[in-house]
Amino acid sequence: MKDKMVPIMLTLLASVFVLAGLFFLYGALSNLLKSHRTSSWPTATAALTSVELKRHTASKRATYEADVRYTYRVGGQSYEGSTLSVGYGGSSDASAHEALVRKLESARTVVVRYNPDAPAESVLIPGISRAHWFLLAFSLTWLVAVIGMITTAILGLQSDASWLDRLVVIEGKTAP
């Protein structure tokens, strides 16, 4: 019974890691595609209503993130937005986020890109960034590593008895 449980447990564990990798990959590709689309969205003028640098200390290293609020009008309708870029999030690179906040603080109005099919959806920074490529690279690396470890484990559990099947004996020895 114990011998049968080991492969089942390994399969379940491997499945969790593969599914996590596929989840990461789906998220990376979705963000990459949506970010690419934002470059062709129509533009409007937005008034900045608040700009702030947020510092988060939930872990050992602090992370920083620009928090922005803005208003804009499309077709006579007012909208409020807070999205800098698709997938934008904090990081430990304080100087990059500080520079972004300084640039936003120096402006009263900015160009906003909005989704023509859902004008309430908007971004201040359109297009694909390093973060999108990073998430894609991480996802692919994760999947390759997990699949490599699974393949290695499967091959390591197999017997080398297949050698006997490929060995061709022309003439056998007689017993002494």
Describe the protein's architecture and organization:
This protein has four helices and five strands. A five-stranded antiparallel β-sheet has the order 3-2-1-4-5. Helix 1 runs antiparallel to helix 3. It has one domain. The radius of gyration is 27 Å and the shape is elongated. It has 176 residues and is of the alpha+beta class. Pfam families: DUF3592. It comes from Roseateles depolymerans. This is DUF3592 domain-containing protein. InterPro entries: DUF3592.
Overview features:
DUF3592, 176 residues, elongated, DUF3592 domain-containing protein, alpha+beta, 4 helices, single chain
Shape: elongated
The secondary-structure element order is HEEEHEEHH
For the CA atoms, what is the radius of gyration?
A: 27 Å
N-to-C CA distance? 43 Å
Q: How many strands appear in the DSSP assignment?
A: 5
Continuous helix count:
4
Output the strand order for the largest sheet: 3-2-1-4-5
Number of structurally distinct domains: 1
What class do helices, strands and sheet pairing give? Answer: alpha+beta
Strand content: 25-35%
Biggest sheet overview? 5 strands, antiparallel
The parts where pLDDT drops under 50 for at least 5 residues are none
Overall mean pLDDT score?
88
Overall helicity: 40-55%
